[in-house]
Amino acid sequence: MIGKIKITNSIHSSAIISDSATLGNNVTVDPHVIIEENVIIGNNTTIGANTHIKPYTTIGKKCRIFNGAVLGEIPQDLKFENEQSELIIGDSTTIREYCTLNRGTSATGKTIIGSHCLLMAYVHIAHDCIVGDYSILANSVQVGGHVEIGHHVTIGGITPVHQFCKVGNYSFTGGGLRIVQDVPPYILAMNEPLKYSGLNIVGLRRNKFPSKTRNNIKAAYQLIYNSSLNLSQAIKKMEDDFENTSEIHEILDFIEKSDRGLI
């Protein structure tokens, strides 16, 4: 069956596409792809062979979906009662081989993957997660339900992320580790158990953070992690003594919203 498909698209004859699916212009669908009902795919997106796209999935423009990915499958959550929920993927995101991305539950109604992300092979993202723009999840990163991953985040391969954890903007977590508490923004997280290991200097420089800003962020984390102050005292000193830049505000806001405690 052929759904709402523009004639400019390249659809292999073995693909199965629901009548209620909507495909934009210049979409490529490779052999043995299954696209179910109520799916929306943006212009210039490519869908690799044997990919299965489940109902209520929206994929943006210029995305690349590689072979064997399963997108929008129902959550692996015993509380799920087949309620309608969504998987939403932004523009220009790459999803490599055999990734599995689940849609949301009644808790939030959706799982959201941002734009310009790279999800390497075998990444799993569970229900009700948020992944920000320009983030990279390396091979076999396994993300539990309700996790929030910020913008410009990198998580190394074979890393599990515990449900309800938060991972801050511009942070970098090494591979083969476990994220079981919240990872603050701008930092490098290494070792087992996971620890603050300095700033994500490479990431901050690549994203053109000036040296004054980097030094200000470093001073804030020196208070939190490498001073005699407890966390409450460090927060108070930052509020009293630091210039209220957007980066300092973000660090303080992240700490305030942390549910699982900081690494």
In short, what is this structure?
With 263 residues, the protein is of the alpha/beta class.
CATH architecture of the largest domain: 3 Solenoid
Shape: elongated
- Counted up, domains total 2
Specify the CATH class of the largest domain: Mainly Beta
Span between termini: 51 Å
Proportion in β-strands: 25-35%
> What is the CA-atom radius of gyration, in angstroms?
20 Å
The residue fraction in helices comes out at 10-25%
Oligomer category: single chain
CATH topology of the largest domain: UDP N-Acetylglucosamine Acyltransferase, domain 1
Give a written overview of the molecule:
By secondary structure, the chain is an alpha/beta fold. It has two domains: 10-146, UDP N-Acetylglucosamine Acyltransferase, domain 1 (3 Solenoid); 205-257, Udp N-acetylglucosamine O-acyltransferase, C-terminal domain (Udp N-acetylglucosamine O-acyltransferase, Domain 2, Up-down Bundle). It is 17% helix and 25% strand. The chain has helices at residues 201-206, 211-225, 231-241, 246-257; strands spanning 10-11, 16-17, 22-23, 28-29, 34-35, 40-41, 46-47, 52-53, 57-59, 64-65, 70-73, 86-89, 94-95, 100-102, 110-113, 118-119, 124-125, 130-131, 136-137, 142-143, 148-149, 154-155, 160-161, 166-167, 172-173, 187-190, 195-199. The strands form three sheets. The chain has an eleven-stranded mixed β-sheet. Strand 26 (187-190) and strand 27 (195-199) form a beta hairpin. It is elongated. The mean pLDDT is 96.
